[in-house]
Amino acid sequence: MKSKAPFSALPLSAAQLANLASLDYQEMTDIQAKSLPLILDRKDVIAQAKTGSGKTAAFGLGLLHNLNPTLFAIQALVICPTRELADQVAKSLRQLARHMDNIKILTLCGGSPMGPQIGSLEHGAHIIVGTPGRLHDHLARGTLDLRRVSMLVLDEADRMIDMGFYDEVVNIVRQCPKHRQTMLFSATYTEDIRKQSAGFLRQPVEIKVESFH
Ligand code: ADP
Ligand code: MG
């Protein structure tokens, strides 16, 4: 079932609409149509939809729209369960930010040497995409400052909990300001995730899409 919801129904810039057209994103997927109005309105959301349903652009368009371009500080943090997923998310965000000047998106994952990551952090970034272990390491060393984060995304939250990252995620979330927007994305939403994430979210709106598109 196609949603037939145009991106132009959203309060996105003309430049972003043109960028989406150039990426051949012709209309919103169901999860995008249901979550983006809330995300752009800075609401906390719990969004559940299958793999491949377009969750990255749902939070990505929200992060980029709500970013303060005049503030060069880490304003958004996306936590992903694996390096591969973090790389994919960063790549998608860079595509979605193609029309924006100088938006710096940095990935922080294990398997890459610490030194260059610390160097990149010293140069600054607007958005960090990372895995729990490495984010935790940077926080422990004092090389990552999350005090200006206003948007937090927990991507593939079900997998992060299954992979045993819960304690690290809690520690990272604690370093973010309390006054922020938190978005949890997951393919499944079990009672376990509900309980574990309850403390992270403020009056979240739950969105669930059953069908593929
Ligand atoms: P999920 O995170 O839900 O598993 P992704 O965000 O990785 O899904 O998106 C899956 C694929 O769909 C990606 O290749 C992405 O570029 C594409 N996609 C996302 N939204 C749209 C859209 N509105 N129109 C066309 N393609 C889209
Ligand atoms: Mg995804």
TrEMBL record:
* Molecular-function GO terms, alphabetical: ATP binding; hydrolase activity; nucleic acid binding; RNA helicase activity
This protein's name? ATP-independent RNA helicase DbpA
User: Motif Q motif: which ranges?
Assistant: 5-33
Q: What is the lineage of its organism?
A: Bacteria, Pseudomonadati, Pseudomonadota, Betaproteobacteria, Neisseriales
Keywords in alphabetical order: ATP-binding, Helicase, Hydrolase, Nucleotide-binding
Parent-protein start and end of this portion: 1 to 213 of 463
Q: Which family does it belong to?
A: Belongs to the DEAD box helicase family.
**Helicase ATP-binding domain: residues covered:** 36-207
Record has Nucleotide-binding as a keyword:
yes
> Would the keyword ATP-binding turn up in this protein's UniProt record?
yes
Any single GO CC term annotated in Swiss-Prot or TrEMBL for this entry? cytosol
Q: Where in this chain does the record put each DEAD-box RNA helicase Q domain?
A: 5-33
Give the top-rank taxon of the lineage listed in the UniProt record for this protein: Bacteria
